[in-house]
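ingest -> validate -> predict -> emit
validate: passed (alphabet ok, no gaps, 521 aa)
predict: started
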Amino acid sequence: MEGPRFWSVCLLWVSLALPALTADGLGLNEPRPAWQQAAGLGVLAAAVALARRRPLVAFGLTAVLSLLTAPALFTVSYGPALGVLALLLGLRAARVRPAALVFVAVGCAGTVKIALVGVDPAPEWVVLTGTLLFGCVFPWLGGRYWRQSRELAAAGWTRAARLEDERRGAEERARLRERARIAQDMHDSLGHELSLIALRAGALQVAADLPGRHRAAAADLRAAAADATDRLHRIIGVLREDDEPVPLTPAGESVEELVARAAESGLPVRWEPAGSSTAVRPGGVAERILHRVVREALTNAARHAPGAPVTVAAAEEAGGTTVTITNGRPTQKSSPSSGGSGLLGLRVAVTAAGGDFAAGPHGDGFRVRAYVPEQPTPRAPRTAVPSAPFTRARRRVVVAIAAAACAGVVLVGGAFGWYAYTETHSVLQPAAYAKLRLGTTADEIAPVLPDRAVRDAPVERAPAQPGDTDCRYYRVSGELLVSVDHFRLCFDAEGRLVAKDVIPRVGLSGEGREEYEEFAR
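emit:
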């Protein structure tokens, strides 16, 4: 693992391990043995190490750790890690179905565990669903949105490069047309004058009264004028490319000759055509585009991978030609240079001709591959609006986030309603508590007891349970979202009330218990 990446992984692990180390000490979790904390930190380390190459496995490990710690999936120790790894899963994994299957599997596993060992299944299942939605699905959708935004930005830059290349091409064609017009004017005017000079020199040459030496000079002048006219015609002919841009290849140079010339210059390059054919047919737009691709790839190999062996392979495929340029690991140190837009320009040129272009790392080196059909045809639908698929994907992500948000609001509202119902229906009025007498049977006092007993009883603050008894806990008041006092009623095996206690709320001293005991007496 490279140095910067190693330290980034370590920093991420420290950030995710900090809640797991401090939650128990702050009283946010039930105290756990040291070996459980160490095992949890080890699982987090493994998940962080796998987060780049195996993000789905990393998220699965964290989800299993959270389920083992709490049936409802949510824990202060591992909740942040669950959300962060879900975000990385959406950012780094392209496929949706595996992540969706993992979310469903986590929900099913948590439901089964709640059904088997849960204290109060309904609220715990609501917490499980809310955690899965807000702590897993939402971050995952955020990661996918982030990923698609980056892809959309890259497609936008590619489109901008293509439009810039088209603009430059239009300017180049306009300049060529103007140059052709000027060349035509020069050819017409200068050619005419040179023709007149040659005509007059010919007249002097055949004049009867002209001395011999002057006749020879006139003949030389006539030959020079004719030669100048021919030279002017050839020079102007190069400039008069009415509708075609300047050729991209040197006159008569093929791709194979380009490779040979590069090899003669000292570049370790090898030409590998398919079979006995040269594979690249001479002439035409296709060869000029492939010549440009090979030339740019060889230039990049010489600049960025000096000393690396280069292979240029060509093969005929499905009505066109594919050229592949592959370089290995550089054997010399390359000088630093700023990145250009050569590959973007090649991609635009190849795709504009109806071909396919790919470039990227390959093994220890780099590979460029281009396919150009024999008769290039523009593919405007694929390149004109490259952002359309990403826009649709982005719209789907936004719709999914909105739907998940609505479902979350419903779940949170339902969970809070259930919480309010259970808390208010487990209240034992202090006056009714004061009338309870030891030795009374459960059936006799049932009319004054509330509908429900407290599920999350404050056992850690209660006094020792007397003998083999069944203790029930009730709230003193119906206040929500705050700690309140509790009453404890303990019944023996025959259903008689054998003990009644007051458990003060968090932060209250024993004065609260004495107050209620005094009231009960």
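The two ends are 72 Å apart (CA to CA).
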